[in-house]
Amino acid sequence: MLKKILLIFGIGIYTFVTKAQTKDSIPDKVRAIIADKFPAIRVLNLEYEIVGGFKYASKYLKNPLPKGEVQNMNQANASMNVNLMKRKNWTLGTLVGYRHLSVELLQPDLSTRQIYQEKQDYHYHHESLNFTYYSRLFGKMAIYSASLMTDGSEKGFERVRGMLMGNLVLKATREVQMTLGVVGLLDPSALVPVIPTFTYKRQYQQGWVVDVVLPKAVYLRKTILGNGRASFGSELDNNTFYIYDFAGLSSVQIFNQMNLNSGLLYEHNLGRSFIAMVKTGMRNSLRSRISEKNKSQNDFIYEASTDPSFYFNAGLSFNPFAKKRVN
What we know:
Layout: H1 2-20, H2 28-31, E1 44-51, E2 54-60, E3 63-64, E4 68-86, E5 90-108, E6 115-137, E7 140-153, E8 156-172, E9 176-186, E10 194-203, E11 208-214, E12 217-224, E13 228-243, E14 253-271, E15 274-292, E16 300-306, E17 309-318
Antiparallel strand pairs: 1-4, 1-17, 2-3, 2-4, 2-16, 4-5, 5-6, 6-7, 7-8, 8-9, 9-10, 10-11, 11-12, 12-13, 13-14, 14-15, 15-16, 15-17
Protein name: DUF6268 family outer membrane beta-barrel protein
Domain DUF6268: 68-319
InterPro entries: DUF6268 (IPR046235)
């Protein structure tokens, strides 16, 4: 579910960014939401992450299994936002992404309950076609979006889902930006069909910023070193991938892990539309489940609870539409 939540905010902020690329197609109040040096969504983004070892307890069909241990885990992520068409009151764009996850672990056999060592590799891709329409509601800017989303593995496509979003810009000045929205998920595996959303960003003196994106993240940010930005806070993240022949089942299963990452984030604008990023801290897994791909996550056959672990992430993004930096 978290992947959907992240995508929801990604698409919402993405529409602001893509419309800003057309000089006279959007009011100045909405442009104020876009950060020149550090846009929330980048056209091209590459990341590599390392997660420290941790132990976990698990249940199969609600029966406890012996404790296992993840000895090493790393993943590479790539995503791209492309503007296909843009007009005065609407845009059509696409978001595509790929993730490769590699993990070495000591895990219990589901039948014999014996611990054995194994290395696993997973490939996951996701795509969406997003239509966004701009209008006014109650005298304020309103953004309506409809998305067609697919995802899958190296074996091909597995799911097709839909999403509808409405977002109202309550305030948009250079100091304060605030939006309120609602999302409808057309997905049989969704835990809830409707999700409320809220964003609040306030800039203070000396480069301090409070940045709230619910239910995704809460950050306290500070501009440093001229073209750098340090952030402290927490953000939801998700690992999703497909599993084949799990426990001898012929149906395709999907693994969903919701994580809360808390710690430090540093970004530096390198100029020429490049931004480098490093973030590190502690990761707490809120939910790890395996269920059939088109069934609700509440109807799971496997569940795990993990100990907190250390994570380190480094990335590089490119935004060719960013404004030139002024020193």
